[in-house]
Amino acid sequence: MTQSPNHRLMTYALIIILLIAAAIGWYFYSIEVEKNEAISSGTRSEILKKSHELAELQAKFSRLNEDHKALNNLRQQDIDKLTGERNDISQQLEETKTVNSSLSDELDRTISDGKAIEARLQQEIDKLTQDGEQLSEQLGQEMKTSRSLLVELDRVNSEKTSAETKLQEKVESAILTTAELEAELEKRQAEQAILQNQVESVSGEKSKLLNQLKSVSGEKSELLNQLESVSGEKSELLNQLEQEQQNKQNIANLKVRLEQELNETRVEISHLKNQMTVIKLTNEVLFSSGSDEIKPEGKKVLSIIADSLNNYPARAISVEGHTDNIPIQNARFSSNWSLSVARSLAAVNYFQHQNQVSPSRLKVVGFGEYHPVADNATAAGRKLNRRIEIKLLPPETKQ
Q: Does residue 132 form part of some domain?
C-alpha cells in the first residue's frame, strides 16, 4: 500500500522526536550517572575519612585505657603503701600504748607501794612517838622517885648525924655502953647502904630509859629518812615517765618531719624499751650509688635529725653504715666495708660541722654487708640492707 507524503513526513517527524527524546533521556541519564558517581566517590571519601578518624579514636581510646590501667595500678600501689604505713603506725601506736600501760601500771604499783610504806612508816612513827612519850613519862616518874630517895637519903643522913650527935652526947654522958653505940652505928650504916643501893638502881633505870629514848629518836629519824627516800623515788619515777613520754613525742614529730621532707616513707624509727632510739635510712636518701658524698636532699634530712638529737645533749650517738653483698665496682673503695665506713664518717662529719653536734657524743661504725636485715637474694632485700642506722644510745651509755 502506498503511503502518502504527509504520512511519511509524520512518520519521520515521529522518529526524529523519538530520537531527540532518547538523546535527551540519555543525556539526563548520563548526568544522573555522573552525579551519582560523584556522590558515591564523595561518600567513599567521607567513609574513608571517617574510618581514619575512627581508627585514631580507637587508638586514643586504647592509649587512654592503658593510661587508666596504669593509673589504677599506681593508685593500688599507693593504697597498698598507705595501708602498710597505716599498719606500721598502728603497730607503733599499739606498742606505745602497751609501753605506756606498763609504765602506768608500774607507776600505780609504785605509788600504791609508796602510800603503803608511807602509812606503815607513819604508824611506826606514831608508835615510836607514843613509846617515847611513855618512856619520857616513866623517866619523869623515875626521876621523881630518885629525888624522893635523895630526900630520904638526906633525911637518913641527917638522922644519922643527929644520932651520932646523940651517941656522942650519950658517950660523953656515959649513959650508953660501947656495944649499944656500935649496934646503933651498924644499924644506921645498913640503912644508909640500902638507900644508896636504891639510889644507884634508880640511876641505872634512868640511864637505861635515856638510852631507850635515844634509840627511839634514832629509829624515828631513820623512818623519816626512809619516807623521804620513798617520796624521792616516787618523784623520780614520775619524772622518768614524763621524760619517756616526751621522748616518744619528739621521735613521733621527727618521723612526721622526715616523711614530709622525703614526701614518702623511706625512714624507719624504732624506740626500744631500754630507751635506745634507732633511725634507719635507706642509702638512696643520703648517697648516690657507690658514693660517700651526701646529696642535698640527704643534708636536709640529716639537719632535721640533728635538731632532734641535740635535744639529748648527755646521750651518745652511734652512726652505722651497712651495704648489700654485691661486690663494689669502684676504684675508690676496695670493699663494701670501706664504703660503709666512709658513708658513716660523712654523716658524722656533717653532724659535727653543720649542726654543732658535740664530737664527744659521736661514734663511727661500718658493718659492710655483715649485718643484713633482709635477704640479699632479692632486689627488695638488698635495697633494705643498703642503709644508715643512727642510734641514740641509752642515758649514760657511751659504748
A: yes
**Rounded-to-integer distance, Cα 280 and Cα 263, Å:** 16
Report the interhelical angle of 178-262 vs 296-309 (nearest 10°): 160
Closest residue by Cα to residue 287 from 298, 275, 271: 298
Alpha-carbon span 277 to 270, nearest angstrom:
6
Whether the predicted model's global pTM rises above the 0.85 cut: no
What per-residue confidence (pLDDT) applies to 354? 86
Number of domains in the chain: 2
Residue 79 lies in a domain: no
Q: Which residue has the higher pLDDT, 283 or 105?
A: 283
My answer on whether 347 and 275 are in the same domain is yes
Alpha carbons within 13 angstroms on the beta-carbon side of residue 183 total: 5
**Measured distance CA(347)–CA(298) in Å, rounded:** 9
HSE-CB for 364 with a 13 A CA cutoff: 17
Query: Do 128 and 237 share a domain, yes or no?
Result: yes
Do 216 and 324 belong together in one domain?
A: no
Domain stop point among 207, 242, 277:
242
Q: How far is CA 103 from the centre of its chain?
A: 12
Whether residue 387 has pLDDT greater than 90: yes
